[in-house]
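User: Please run a holo structure prediction.
Assistant: Happy to. Please share the sequence and the ligand.
User: Here you go; the ligand is adenosine-5'-diphosphate.
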Amino acid sequence: MLTEDMVRRALSEVRDPELHYDIVSLNMVRDIRIEGDAVAVDVALTVQGCPLHQKIETDVKKAVGTLPGVNRVDVRLDVMNDAERRDAFARAFQKSQADRQAAPSSGSPSAQWSPLLAPDSSTILLGIASGKGGVGKSTVTANVAVALQRLGHRVGILDMDIYGYSQGRMLGAHEPARANAAQKIVPWQVHEIHVVSMGMFVPDNQAVVWRGPMLGKMMQQFFTDVAWPPLDYLLIDLPPGTGDVALDMAQRLPQALLIIVTTPQAVAREVAMRTADVARRAHQRILGIIENMSYVPMPEGHRLELFGSGGGESLSQALDVPLLGQIPLESSVREGGDRGIPVVISAPQSEAAQTFMQIAQKIDAAAHA
Ligand SMILES: Nc1ncnc2c1ncn2[C@@H]1O[C@H](COP(=O)(O)OP(=O)(O)O)[C@@H](O)[C@H]1O
Ligand SMILES: [Mg+2]
């Protein structure tokens, strides 16, 4: 006698091709109906127009079709609502955490690249991502790095924005790359931060013309060919969006914690959501959101919300991660970046600098939680 339980057990062999876990534990099976020798299964996909829906459908038919007494399998596909999708991602995330704890020695594919990435390394990798450019990702990277250093940590920055590198300018480092006796690149040391950026390899103001394959190896080379000192934090300034580098990092450095920088605008938020989606699929943990250019501080504590409001807050709610802080738009921030002295150092009393210090404390607490 065919039972719903038997069908459910057969379905637990079917995996969501993107989330990598079975569709039963991800709560993707909405309904099972048995009528004689015909079985109907309702499956909810995580995204509309999921390009892999055919694979799921075929796999479901195969898994259920092989049960004794089944002659027909009807699969009905639907799409999850926001709450269901969040729940599915959360389940996949919890499972991936459990798997990682169960097999700690397997490490990540990049474990041999550098002692910083070894399974027993205590270095915390922080990927700084954003949906689009110009939201202040590099500014945030430089200032959070300095703030973490001021809290007593050993901090490095890897500028993975190959075409739009800017950490040299932000931190006031200009010298060309220098190799040590072992022929490894020595990071710039500025404001007590260790920095590696494409800017080291490019003579003043020349454009970078790396080709695809080389770009693919960049991340690896920035670890294998660099004499990184021991670090407590390595901040990785990512290019905007969900391009090759973000995907590469998601796959090769899944242990990296992500911070998403956004502005209060809704458009910026939508792109940031996509960034978050990639992270979730790769089972990367998103530490939190930083909203930049949130307001202009006015006399008497009044806040002028130049770019609207609520982008960071709603993104944080949608992803169920904390909003780590809201950084005001202040000319001292831009000037600091242009002069190579981050605002945390150049104007430590400013509202922006103090917000960066608070954000660093929250990151430090969350990363060790
Ligand atoms: N909070 C802020 N207040 C004032 N200017 C800012 C602020 N954040 C960023 N900027 C300025 O905005 C521009 C873009 O910032 P940047 O960090 O380079 O963005 P991204 O790396 O996301 O492209 C820079 O000129 C920077 O100095
Ligand atoms: Mg940048």
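The chain has two domains: 4-102, 106-367.
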